[in-house]
Amino acid sequence: MRGWLGPAEMAARLGVSVKALRVYERAGLVTPDRTAANYRRYGPAHAARLHQVLALKRLGLPLARIAGLLAGRLASLDSVLALQQQMLETRATELREALAAIGAARARLQEGGDLSLDDLATLTRKSVMTMKSDEAMAAALKPAVDRHFSAEEQQRLAANAPYFDQEQVSREWDSLIAEAKALAATGDPASPEAKDLARRWFAQIERFTGGDPDVTARLGRVWSESMQDPAAAKDLPLTPELMAFVGAARRAATGEDA
Fold first, then answer.
1. What is the mean pLDDT of residues 42-59?
2. Contact criterion met (CB below 8 Å) for 60 and 179
3. 236 inside domain
4. pTM for this predicted structure
């Protein structure tokens, strides 16, 4: 097995711990070969699979979902690389915009000028606020919420909403959105993985709507209108394209279950 790597060498090459390799092995994500003396050895195929695992993990997906994706539509290295390329290109655009904003701000200060409140707000949004906060998202949705729900309805929904851990719910939605992006990159909303995602996505929505179809429909319009508003869309984690994919997956799942 010349040219192959032991756990410590592979972990060092990838920038992870040996413990992490063991976790991925127990999760069934990668199975190293064994020598006659039963020592683990990793070759090129194992390195490729570990790249897939780490790329999807970077998107915030739990290991159980990564296992399902790698067993299905994201089984090939190229499909994961395509998704990773898309995400990095988006991040590169954001970084270029942040650098341009910082450069412009420094140039103005070096010329003896001041930064206005608008300048500082733009600078902060582009160079600091890399994650969409719950507060910013709520503010972005508020105009559409007020159009579709009266103040009394909003109070009633808030009063009747079940108790939940906001941080936990945010993590759950982050995971669902990351998974949706990964599946959308495959372009197949009728895949078993996409239909399973749609079921879990709308089950999450029903936790807060109580399964009321009218509330669910109006909530959908709130998101649709907000995503079409450039001022609101910048603070939302979803895009019309992603919502369309999830909707198509739901229709495929509903048709299958009917």
1. 88
2. no
3. yes
4. 0.56
